Structure formats: C-alpha cells, structure tokens
Amino acid sequence: MTAPYGTWSSPFSPAAIATASPRIDGARFVGADVWWGESVPAEGGRVTVRSSTGEIVLPAPWSARSRVHEYGGGAWTADHDGILYFVDAKDQRIHRMPRGGAPEPLTPPGPAHGGLRLQGGRLFAVREDLTRDPHVRGIVEIPLDGSAAHDADALTVIAEGAGFYAHPALSPDGSRIAWVGWTAPRMPWQEASLVIADIGRDTRSVPPARAALQPEWLGDDELVYADDPSGRWALQRLRLDAAGRPLPVEPVTAAAIDADTGYGLWVLGNRWFQPLADGRIVAVRTNGRDDLVVVSPDGSARPLVVPVDGHVSVDDVSGTRVLLSGNSSTSAPGVWTVDVDAGAVERIAGGAPADPSWMPPSTALLVDGSHGPVHAFAYAPQNPEQVAPEGELPPYIVFVHGGPTAHVTGAASAAIAFYTSRGIGVLDVNYGGSSGYGRDYRERLDGQWGVVDVDDVIAAARGLADAGLADPARIAIRGGSAGGWTVLSALVRGGTFAAGISRYGVADLRMLAAHSHDFEAHYIEGLVGPLPDAEDVYVERSPLTHVDRIDVPVLLMQGGEDRVVPPAQAEAIRDALRERGVDHEYVLYPTEGHGFRAAETIVDALERELAFLGRVFGFTAAD
C-alpha cells in the first residue's frame, strides 16, 4: 500500500512502547536460577527483582533504586541461598529479605546507599550522607545480623571523605579491599584512582592510574582493572609483593586495541568484565557498538559470539557461564546466559521480540564535521506493509543523547521503531564528547559544550540530507537533559531543524551550575569553564540568552520532581517563547524526575511527540 511518510499504520502503539523494553538493572546467578532487576512502568517505574522461575522476588510497593551520586546503580544483590539485599527507593536504607520473608533494614535512617557488593559472605556498599555538612561519602561494610539498623557505629567504615567512591572489591582471603575513588573538580572518566587497603589496618596504596574502573581480584595478591593510559580503556594487571606493595602495572593484552573496556562511570552497577575461575577474563570492547572477547592468561583473545552488542554489562559468572545484560542491534534488550566454552546462548529475560520485518537495521555513519569525523547511527523508515509515493523523501528526527559523556550503540529499539514504522526516519548521533570512541573523541567537548555538540548534530543532519536520504525541510531534533541542551542550542543556531523536542533540557548554564548536585557540581567547569571567570561564556552559550533566535516550533516536556534539571529551566524557555509568540507546547509531569518512568507518562509523551511532528511536518498519523 502506498501512503505518505508519517501516515503509515504501525503496530507500535505508545502503550506498547511503555511496556516493550523495561529497564534491566543488573542480574545474578542465584543457585540454579537467574535473578534480574527490572523496571515496571505500569507501577510508576518501580524496580522489582524477578527470577527465571517466574517468581517476583521483590513485591510491590518495594523498589530497588539507589540515589547515590544522584544516578544510583548497584541497588541490589543476592546470595546463592536466595537472600535478597536491596536499597529501598524511598528511604535509601539497605534491606535484607529472605525468600518468602519480609524486608528488614540493615542500615540506619539518613544516608543513601548503592553499589552493593556481596563477597565472601560480607556486604559492602557505597554510602552517601547528605545530612552532614560538608557532605560525606565512603565505603562501608554492613553487618548482616541487622545490628546496624539503629546503630550506625555497628557499621565498619572502610573509607570516608568528601570525594567519590565506587566498585568495592574484596580479596579472596578477605584481608584487602580495593576501590575506585576520585575528587572534584575531576569527573571519573577524566581522572580516578585505584586504591588498595588492608582491612583493619590504616595502610593504603595508590598505584599509578589515569581513570581506573572496576577492580577485580584474581588472587590474594593480584587484581585486574580497566584504565586508559593509551587513550582507550583496557585491562591492566597489578600484583602486590610480599609486603603488599604494588609492583609495576602490566597490560593484560600486549597489543593496543582500538576499543574501550569501560565508559563513563555514571552509575555504580556496571561491570565491563568478569574473571573466570581458570584465569580467563570475559570482557566487553566498545567502539560504537560492543563486542565480547574471552581473554586467556597469556593475553590472547578470541571473540565470543552473542546477540547483545550495546551497553553490555557482564553481571555475573558461574563456572564457564556468564550472565550478560544489555541492548542488541538484532533483538529487544534483555538478559542472556552464555557458556564461553560450549558457545550456548540462552535468553533469560527482556522485552518481547518484535517481528524483524518491522525493526529497522541501524547503519553506522561517519560524516565530516568541522571538528573532525562525527559518528552516528541511521534508521531508515521501515514498514513491510506500506511504502511512500515515488520521489518523496522521508522526514527525520535526530536523536541527541544525554550525558553528554555517554553514547548510543545502534541498538534495535521499539522506541525507534515507533517512528520508523510510521515513515519517520531516526538519526542517532554520537557527537564529539561521546564515550565509546576513546579519550580523544571524548575530550573534543572539553570547554566546547554548546559548540562542538551543536556543530556535530548539524553536520550529521546535513550529511544525511546531502546524501538524498532525508527531506531537508522536514528534519526535527529531539533530546533529553544534556541532549535537550543541544536541541535548544541547535534551534538557536537555526537553519537546519524545522522543529525541536526538549525533554528536561538545560536552558541556562548559570542556573544549572547553581542547582547541580554533588556528583556534577564541577562537571560543567570542564565542559564550559570555571565560574566566575567564564561567566560571560555561560551567558553567551545559554539558549535562554538567545531565545529570540528560535523561530521554529518547540515541544518542552519536564518532570516536576527533577532534581538534576529543575522545571525552572524549561519554564524559562516557555515564558520567553510565549512572550514572543513562538509556536510551542509545554507539558509538566508532576511526579516524574529526571527521566520518564511511569507508563502513563511514556504514553502521553509519545502521543504528544507524534502529534507535534505531524502538525509541523504536515501529516496526520494513522493512529
């Protein structure tokens, strides 16, 4: 059937998108079963824990979600007997819940916890106490008998200070613990230390590291971690001498690899590799998309063929089986087990598989930009039942990821198929500053936020149009958070995009700096410059300063409880657009935070976006 782009009928309804791909938050082997964390949009986005037996391990109203460093992560773990340990989203205390029992608190009220690690029968966590002045973070050991639930002195403080902490790892004999730490004004992908401490003794060693990630012990005096001394995160091996002093660090693989084992440490639960008992290591390597390899003790590596290739987390290991979670360019996000020797792959959980005839493959693009090559993934309109009239070029929407130190992977997505199945193409851009392509690409944005990112998304959009793949008069741009900043900045620049959609986007840099939480308090200094010296730059680059240059329709969507980018940012843009009579819509979701999680919010946002694009581009959606 022939029909104009944008009007095609689609099986991907907004309601289906809300439930199609729940967020996976870690996975564990628990006895013979697999457990995983999963968001439940129909229940306000709470995070439950499910079992491969079909059991809902963590029932409503409990939700396993951490707020440490604002973005949380590592909010649950479990032992092999099926005892669940989790951070409750409401009070941020760690709870213990035996199978069939009720949750009981293990930590006192007040501080938040995250990055839970259960090793050798001992529970460690990253703790953040915002009730103290100055704020204090650290690594603590939590007694499992509940004695610390009302007595903070029963906790063992391993490390504490005004800096930031992640990835506690206990040595097999229980005598040492390693972790990653960093201090302001640096972000962890810029500079982070590996710290090793003797438990019970006030002795620490800090071997040389540039931006360390995820220490894992291979033995009582040997560990492996990721670092990027050459500009790409790669596995490093560290041995300790008889006195516990670090010996020179050695790369696990001698040959340099043009890929990263690791990326921005935004959340505390990611695992980019796992050692096996025989000394081999299963590791992720990222260069845009992810590959998995099995690294032998001699440093040689062989590929591991798996369907997951985006934001892969190697969550757990049992014998020769590893547990993976992440996205896929060929199927819905989920959880998989893989036997590294037999090659057997089993999908355990995730979104319902979609008919592949409706799912557009992503095409990796590399376009020339004024600051160097720009990476992107293009998804052309795809519908097995409808085609456009001959000669019509499709409208496109350019997606801009948040962060900005983050990246997209070209994964298959029902959220993208929502548009492509209706005849709207999607261009997902990894602008300069994105992770996944090495330090040099990541640092292209240093001091240039609002310049490089904007230039790159414009270059990517124009490259698509110049190639005859998109209608240059019908290209919109959409992004959230830092991506919303780039959206608004690109609209200020003008000339490329016919409309913009900003979800909880940054509009005023000074307002952002004034309201930033601890983790990102100095982030903007590296992206723009320090205050007050760079105040003129803050003013000049802020979209709110030049809102009079925006002359195309804008859709603004915002969470009422957003503590990262408060509603005042979007409302300032709204007020300025209203004063000038510029076509705009503003939607406030009172109970949402930084990111939309409730099913009704996801549905409403998608319906509004589709209607907005139809109005701007001149089509009426089939539904």
Which terms would index this structure?
623 residues; alpha+beta; four-stranded antiparallel sheet; globular
Count of individual helical segments = 10
Low-confidence segments: none
Distance between the termini: 17 Å
Secondary structure: number of strands: 35
Lateral arrangement of strands in the main beta sheet:
28-29-31-30-32-33-34-35
Task: Provide the β-strand percentage band.
Answer: 25-35%
| Helix/strand class | alpha+beta
Fraction of residues in H or I helices: 10-25%
Which outline best applies?
Answer: globular
User: Which sheet architecture does the biggest sheet show?
Assistant: 8 strands, mixed
**Mean residue pLDDT:** 94
Alpha carbon gyration radius: 24 Å
What does this structure look like?
53% of the residues are buried. Strands 28-29-31-30-32-33-34-35 form an eight-stranded mixed beta sheet, sandwiched between helices. It is globular and about 70 Å long. The protein has ten helices and 35 strands. Helix 1 (14-20) packs across helix 10 and helix 4 packs across helix 5. It starts with 13 loop residues before the first helix and ends in a 6-residue tail after the last helix. Strand 17 (222-227) and strand 18 (234-239) form a beta hairpin. The model has no long low-confidence stretch (mean pLDDT 94). The longest helix is centred in the C-terminal third of the chain and has 19 residues, at 599-617. The protein has 623 residues and is of the alpha+beta class.
